[in-house]
Design goal:
Elements: H1 11-22, E1 26-30, E2 33-41, H2 47-61, E3 64-65, E4 70-73, E5 86-94, E6 103-108, E7 111-116, H3 125-138, E8 141-150, E9 165-172
Antiparallel strand pairs: 1-7, 2-5, 2-6, 3-5, 4-5, 4-8, 7-9, 8-9
Length: 174
Amino acid sequence: MGGNLKAVGSQKDSEVMEKLSAEGLKLERVSPIRVAYVQLTGPYENWGRGLMELKKWLDSQGVEIVGRPIGLFYDHPTETPVGELKSDACFPIRGEIKPNAEFQVKELPGGDIAITRHVGPADKYTRTYGSFLEDLMSKGVVFYGPAREIFEEPRQDLRPGMGIRIEQLVRKNS
């Protein structure tokens, strides 16, 4: 993701984000990023299989993968029935590609992101993410969009909590 960082926004936005960083939040500004993705419904434990299917399809299409795998996780796993959990398995891409019924292309929005990392067993991920969101709210930060998790490399057994960083789009509550 480092290649996607870009200094954009107003001086006021920068000042607000500097203040939040001084309060202990790790923040970065990211540019929009074009990704190929597959939408998944069901247990998050199956997410890695969807990612590998996407990678196989991208390879067959000759599309260049230009970054690490990204997971977008839309639902809270303790509040949503397992069979209804929604997520996207994504790869940043470069080049032309014709989407089909299963594999699509979209642009992930840029903006200010708060960052954390889960350390520990994957099944304890919700504690890390819950504490992360509580910390954001306590500092008057509004989070929006799905949680983004960045993974080191594609593997079939990947699921939330196994990534190298967790990102959440944020803005200061006005």
